[in-house]
Design brief:
Elements lengths: L1 H28 L26 E4 L28 H9 L11 H4 L29 H6 L4 E6 L2 E6 L4 E6 L17 E7 L2 E7 L19 E10 L2 E9 L8 E2 L3 E5 L21 H16 L7
Antiparallel strand pairs: 1-2, 1-10, 2-3, 3-4, 5-6, 6-7, 7-8, 8-9, 8-10
């Protein structure tokens, strides 16, 4: 009985935390992050730079890393509010996805913002959601790029590797001249990506992405027929601009152009442990901790799901 009481208390706390998280997310995600932090300095960085040099650790986080929202000029965690109409299949998949990010479903806050697509106004507690990432599955390309935590670009002669701090996972963009596969018989969580330069813009095309991933944190679907294009342009010493779009006729009736996203360059020693070890943190989602501990003790009770043991 005592354990049951403790679980109930934890559940109540989790519900409050969920409400606070939703409120905080929307302050940063819907209209631009208010706090500036380490990445919010409005003073332009006029140091010289090489336009085609993408190497380094870049971040969309208002504080560089470790929580918070995106920096004021970096764009929010959604792909874009200008969502094309769904196909019947797209609508079916959209309705089946239950995200926990955005304005709370049925809330006064959600009703007060009809200018936002409904996908940004339907958040529910994680215990009742369908987000595969909460079970430590990969996020997929577009969602990982949007998440406001650092990503390191490692430039090699025949490829660029993007190492994402959040989930500590990496993606390969081939630059050796290969072509995308015309027929993908085995979709991948991170798809198949090739890149090339068009003047000062690095263009990346990706196909064959596993359709279990979402376009962004709001739960927008895509099929394994999606074509994602990213266009990176270094506009100053410390700012990398990303424009991207998806074309997925199985899900959307038209190309979906993302809102502009920006990354800020972090100093080499910006991320470090207490004893001074620098570099990306190992911010893994480990099933042993996430599923057995957090989900059973916090996430599930917050959604009304209780476990006896």
């Amino acid at each position: 009985m005592r354990n049951r009481f403790v679980i109930l208390i934890v559940a109540l706390v989790a519900v409050v935390v969920f409400s606070l998280v939703i409120a905080a997310q929307n302050r940063g995600a819907q209209g631009g992050q208010q706090q500036q932090g380490a990445q919010g300095n409005a003073t332009p960085d006029n140091r010289p730079f090489k336009v085609r040099d993408l190497a380094g650790i870049w971040s969309r986080n208002s504080g560089g890393y470790g929580g918070g929202g995106t920096c004021r000029e970096c764009g929010d965690r959604g792909f874009g509010n200008n969502v094309p109409p769904f196909t019947p299949e797209g609508q079916k998949r959209f309705d089946a996805n239950k995200p926990s990010y955005g304005r709370a479903l049925g809330s006064e806050d959600a009703a007060a913002h009809p200018e936002e697509h409904i996908g940004r106004r339907r958040a529910i507690p994680p215990a009742n959601g369908t987000d595969l990432y909460q079970y430590c599955n990969p996020q997929g390309v577009s969602r990982a790029l949007i998440y406001p935590d650092p990503v390191e670009f490692i430039v090699l002669p025949d490829r660029i590797i993007q190492n994402f701090q959040w989930t500590y996972s990496w993606r390969t963009i081939w630059t050796d001249g290969r072509q995308l596969p015309k027929e993908v018989d085995l979709p991948r969580w991170w798809g198949y990506s090739v890149g090339h330069w068009e003047g000062d813009t690095f263009v990346v095309d990706t196909v064959g992405t596993d359709d279990r991933t979402w376009v962004d944190h709001f739960g927008y679907p895509h099929s394994d027929q999606m074509h994602l294009q990213e266009r990176y342009h270094r506009i100053s010493y410390d700012t990398l601009e990303l424009n991207m779009w998806i074309d997925d006729p199985k899900i959307y009736r038209g190309r979906w152009n993302a809102d502009v996203k920006r990354f800020k360059l972090l100093p080499k020693d910006y991320i470090k442990t207490l004893d001074g070890f620098t570099g990306l943190l190992e911010d893994l989602c480990a099933p042993a901790d996430e599923v057995d501990q957090f989900d059973r003790r916090i996430r599930d009770p917050a959604g009304g799901v209780f476990h006896d043991k």
